[in-house]
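Input sequence (90 aa), recorded before submission:
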Amino acid sequence: MRRVKAIVTGRVQGVSYRAATCAEARRLGLVGWVKNRADGGVELEAEGPADQIAALLAWCEQGPPAARVDRVAVDDLAPGGTERGFSVTY
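Predicted structure, token format:
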């Protein structure tokens, strides 16, 4: 299992980035959350099999059609194993 924290910058607010990320993470069977940041970026934590995490991070590089991703900064975290789903938080 792998858990990551990612900060996504660019035009990622107001373009359904959070909702699309949530849908993609659920499709991949991951748990965690995604939220907007005050600085205009999007932050997420995701946990699951390493190959599924890699797939989500690759997706995050593009995002939904209206997004323009400049950067995805990723840090590895210790897996928690307590979450049961993936959600948009506020």
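Checked by second reader. Strands lie at 2-11, 31-36, 42-48, 68-77, 86-88.
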